[in-house]
Amino acid sequence: MTDIDFYELLECERTADGATIKSSYRRLAMVHHPDRNPGNAEAETRFKAISEAYDCLKDPQKRAAYDQYGHAAFRNGGGGQSQGFEGFSDIFESVFGDFMGGGRQQRGGPRRGADLRYDLEISLEESFNGKTVPVTIDVAAPCAVCDGTGAKPGTSAKTCATCAGHGKVRAQQGFFVVERACPTCHGAGQVIADPCTACRGEGRVDKEKTLEVKIPAGVDEGTRIRISG
Question: What is the pTM of this model?
Answer without folding.
Answer: 0.36
